[in-house]
Amino acid sequence: MTGTPFQVRDAVWRDLLALRRGEGPGAEHAWDPAWALYEPIARRRATSFVVAQVGQSLDGRVATVDGDAAPISGPDGFAHLHRLRALADAVIVGAGCVVADDPRLTVREVEGPSPARVVIDPSGRVPAGAKCVAGVGGAILVRAEDCAATEDGASLRLPREADGRLCPRALLAALADRGLRTILVEGGAATIRHFLQAGLVDRLHVTVAPIIIGSGAPGLLLDPVSHLSEALRPRCRVTPLGSDTLFDCAFDRGPVEPSRAPSA
Question: What pTM value is reported for the model?
Answer without folding.
Answer: 0.91
